[in-house]
From TrEMBL:
The lineage of its organism: Eukaryota, Fungi, Fungi incertae sedis, Mucoromycota, Glomeromycotina. This is 616_t:CDS:1. Gene3D superfamilies: Glutamine Phosphoribosylpyrophosphate, subunit 1, domain 1. PANTHER family: METALLOPROTEASE TLDD (PTHR32194), PROTEASOME SUBUNIT BETA TYPE-3 (PTHR32194:SF10). GO terms for cellular component: cytoplasm; nucleus; proteasome core complex, beta-subunit complex. The keyword Nucleus applies. Keywords: Cytoplasm, Nucleus, Proteasome. One of its GO terms (biological process) is proteasome-mediated ubiquitin-dependent protein catabolic process. It comes from the Eukaryota. It is found in: Nucleus. CDD domains: proteasome_beta_type_3.
C-alpha cells in the first residue's frame, strides 16, 4: 500500500497445508535493499527456493554494479526469473514494494509466470486476495502519512484474515520511509 513518500507491505504468519496449520512464524517477506521488500505468497518450498535465488542475484548485482537495485529493476529481475520457468512455473505470486531514488512509492504485483502490474495505490495476493482488495478499496486514501498508512494496512490485513480461515495467526507490517523501516507485529485471529 502506498502513502506520501512511504510504502507499506504486510503479510500473515501462517504456514499450512489446506486446513492444517504447521507453523505460525513462516516468513513471507524479505528485505531486498534498504528501501525495498519482496513479499511472496504461494507454495512454501517455492517461496524458499525463490528467496535464495533472489538473494543470490541481489548480491551478485551489488558486487558487479557496486550499488543497490532500484525497485523497478528489482521487479524486472523477479519477473524475468519467474518467466524463465513459465512451462513449469513456481507456484508463487510476488509483490515488490519500495521507495525509488526520489522516495516515490513503487508497488508491483506479479502472477506465477512473471506478468507484472505496477500499482499506484495497493496490490494484494494470497488466499484472502478478494477480501484484501475489497477492504483496501474501502480504507485506502491517497497521500497517507506513515502512521496513517500503518493503521490502514493493519486494519486491512486484520479484516481480510478474519474472513479467511486459511490465513492469519498474526501479521507483520513493514512501513518503509526515506529515513528508516518501521516493523511491527500484529495479533490477529488464531483459531
Amino acid at each position: 500500500m502506498s502513502g506520501k513518500n512511504c510504502v507499506a507491505i504486510a503479510s500473515d504468519k501462517r504456514f499450512g497445508v489446506k486446513y492444517l496449520t504447521i507453523s505460525m512464524e513462516f516468513p513471507k517477506m524479505f528485505q531486498a535493499t534498504d528501501k525495498t521488500f519482496i513479499g511472496i505468497s504461494g507454495l512454501a518450498t517455492d517461496v524458499q527456493t525463490l528467496m535464495e535465488r533472489f538473494r543470490f542475484k541481489i548480491n551478485m548485482y551489488r558486487m558487479n554494479e557496486e550499488r543497490d537495485f532500484e525497485p523497478i529493476t528489482l521487479a524486472n529481475m523477479v519477473s524475468s526469473t519467474l518467466y524463465e520457468r513459465r512451462f513449469s512455473p513456481y507456484f508463487v505470486e510476488p509483490i515488490v514494494a519500495g521507495l525509488d531514488k526520489n522516495n516515490n512509492p513503487y508497488i508491483n504485483g506479479m502472477d506465477l509466470i512473471g506478468c507484472s502490474t505496477t500499482a499506484c495505490d495497493f496490490a494484494a495476493t494470497g488466499t484472502p486476495e478478494d477480501q484484501l482488495y475489497g477492504t483496501c478499496e474501502a480504507l485506502w486514501e491517497p497521500n497517507l502519512e506513515p502512521e496513517e498508512l500503518f493503521e490502514t494496512i493493519s486494519q486491512t490485513i486484520m479484516s481480510a484474515t478474519n474472513r479467511d480461515c486459511v490465513s492469519g495467526w498474526g501479521a507483520v507490517v513493514h512501513v518503509i520511509t526515506p529515513e528508516r523501516v518501521i516493523t511491527r507485529t500484529l495479533k490477529t485471529r488464531m483459531d
